[in-house]
Amino acid sequence: MDRTRRGRRLLVSLCFLCLAVLLPGALLASPAAGRKRRQAGFDHYVLALQWPGTVCRQTNHCCSSNGCCRSNPLNWFTIHGLWPQYSYGGWPSCCRPTTTFNMNKIAMLKPILEKYWPSLYCGDTSTCFGGRGPFWAHEWATHGTCGYPEIQDEYDYFSTALYLYSKYNVTKALRKAHIYPRNGRKYAVAHIVDAIDHAFGRLPHLVCKNGSVQELRLCFHKDYQPRDCGSEDDEAWSSSRRSHCPRYVTLPQSALGNATEGRLRNRAENVPRAHGQSYV
Ligand SMILES: *[C@@H]1O[C@H](CO)[C@@H](O)[C@H](O)[C@H]1NC(C)=O
Ligand SMILES: *[C@@H]1O[C@H](CO)[C@@H](O)[C@H](O)[C@H]1NC(C)=O
Ligand SMILES: *[C@@H]1O[C@H](CO)[C@@H](O)[C@H](O)[C@H]1NC(C)=O
After folding, report:
1. Collapsing DSSP states into helix, strand and coil, what is residue 12?
2. Where is the signal peptide (predicted)?
3. Any catalytic annotation for residue 244?
4. Which of 109, 161, 263, 277 could form a disulfide with 82 if both were Cys (CB 3.0 to 4.6 A apart)?
């Protein structure tokens, strides 16, 4: 676990224990209302989308649950998660310890989720408090539960994310600006940001891995109107140079199909590290 996250967890649990008095100056300086909100709610949403072509380069073995392994490669941004955020940095997580993920509530959405919100890894991901489950259970438990009361249950969570994803169609916006997945082709980050700004009137936040776009994030007010993604949304990543985007980036095509020789890397790399690192 990285240090920022551990630190933040500690802060949050301190708040929880009403030990705010012990917190360092920065937090104490914020208005009382702000402190209260830290426990009671959140300020805006981040809709995190991932670029399979980049994520799937880390795949070293295949399994049926891994979207990277499909015979029809995913050549569009897929959903990573909808994340409630605090406007001054940080985010709540694991907000309702007693609720377990109920797949039945989203059974109707499953075919759409398979297409637009697939797991890009093999194996279960962590849920809160030591549990493990499918990728969806992870996103719901870690982030979805913190959207209450705006987000009431699993159905609400997944359908809200899908609604935003289809209304603010990033793949379409980029195509309009002639930005397509293509191996080796480089695009200026400014060109990508402008394309999104032009389409939705707000600035996205990009996360890269080794010179390729790994995530594109859109930000929304609580009423689901788009807002700029601010520097506070970068905070979690700023400690990690690896997420930094150079001026020119690629959008590699997803072409794994079956994990073929040459794509296989050592086993340690199969751990979804980008996940463990921060938000997810
Ligand atoms: C993937 O591998 C399986 C078994 O090894 C094979 O039957 C299937 O045709 C392969 N699919 C693709 C897209 O290569
Ligand atoms: C986004 O737009 C593309 C291109 O027009 C389209 O194929 C895709 O179905 C759209 N995605 C959603 C979720 O509506
Ligand atoms: C990083 O990108 C370079 C150039 O695109 C490539 O040659 C190299 O294999 C990549 N490294 C990893 C770990 O993916």
Report:
1. helix
2. 1-29
3. no
4. 161
Ligand located closest to 62 CA: 1
Is the Cβ atom of 258 under 6 angstroms away from ligand 1?
yes
The pLDDT-based confidence of 234 (bands split at 50, 70, 90) is low
* Residue nearest atom 6 in ligand 1 by C-alpha distance: 258
Q: Name the DSSP letter for residue 155.
A: H
Which ligand sits closest to the CA of 77? 2
CA 263 to chain centre: 25
For residue 2, tell me if it sits in a domain.
no
Which atom of ligand 2 approaches the CA of 170 most closely?
1
The CATH number of the domain where 115 resides is what?
A: 3.90.730.10
- Exposed e or buried b per residue across 37-57, where buried means at least 16 C-beta atoms within 10 angstroms of its C-beta: bbeebbbbbbbbbbbbbbbbb
Q: One-letter amino acid identity for 250?
A: T
Is 221 in the active site? no
pTM value surpassing 0.90 = no
Mean of the pLDDT values across residues 163-180? 97
Total domain count, the chain: 1
3-state secondary structure of 213: strand
Helix, strand, or coil (residue 183): strand
Q: Is residue 177 part of a domain?
A: yes
**Domain containing residue 48:** 42-268
Q: Which atom of ligand 2 is nearest to the CA of 162?
A: 13
